[in-house]
């Protein structure tokens, strides 16, 4: 299919592309506006102690188990009790994530919630409870072998993570452009009528000698160019 044919399709049905893109963008925007907002607050815990370089490497290897210990029902139950959330440990743990940061010997804790203030309160209390419980577990160890977990700073201000309305609307528009382009070419492919002398020559191998104008009925709207070629309309051979 030569380039001129593609351009001809775009001239005939190109209006479909922006219409589909606009509908997709508006639909995605409406969907995003109907979603419940979700906010995230984060805090970092630093793991330190009085030990040599070899012990430091050991602590770095223990970061992952330490982060997993934070994500326990024991910690969650205490946080739920202190904040009086009445969510239960399992539901609370579903809103919290902990990940080790080996290069800084830290643990990042994130909390997601539909209320920004509650997200900050949850992540702060998780950090506090974990500090206390870890300190209690380290009491029986020699000072040189103890690790200390401390909260570096107060939790970050809760930021909206869902829905990202602008991003979703842009993605919807891009998908709409793609879908509209496919639809325009699909409709043109399914339309097997002959509309121009060039179509007659290409598909029938005949030379057009003339056009027979359509005679409109009394009171009828003029048929236009398509009507002027009524006698040339035929089915394209496949």
E-strand count: 5
Can you say what the CATH homologous superfamily of the largest domain is? EIF_2_alpha
Count of alpha and pi helical runs = 10
Describe the global form: elongated
Biggest sheet details: 5 strands, antiparallel
Structural domain tally: 3
Helicity range of the residues? 40-55%
DSSP strand (E) fraction? 5-15%
* Intertermini distance: 14 Å
Q: What series of H and E elements makes up the topology?
A: HHEHHHHEEHEEHHH
CATH class of the largest domain: Alpha Beta
Query: What does the radius of gyration come to?
Result: 34 Å
Q: Would you give the CATH topology of the largest domain?
A: Alpha-Beta Plaits
Tell me which CATH architecture of the largest domain applies here: 2-Layer Sandwich
How confident is the prediction overall: mean pLDDT? 85
Plain-language structure description:
This protein is of the alpha+beta class and 238 residues long. The protein has three domains: 1-35 and 163-191, no CATH class; 38-162, EIF_2_alpha (Alpha-Beta Plaits, 2-Layer Sandwich); 192-215 and 222-238, no CATH class. It has ten helices and five strands. Strands 1, 2, 3, 4 and 5 form a five-stranded antiparallel β-sheet that branches. The radius of gyration is 34 Å and the shape is elongated. Residues 223-238 have low confidence and may be disordered.
Protein traits:
5-stranded antiparallel beta sheet, 53% helix, Alpha-Beta Plaits, alpha+beta, 238 residues, disordered C terminus
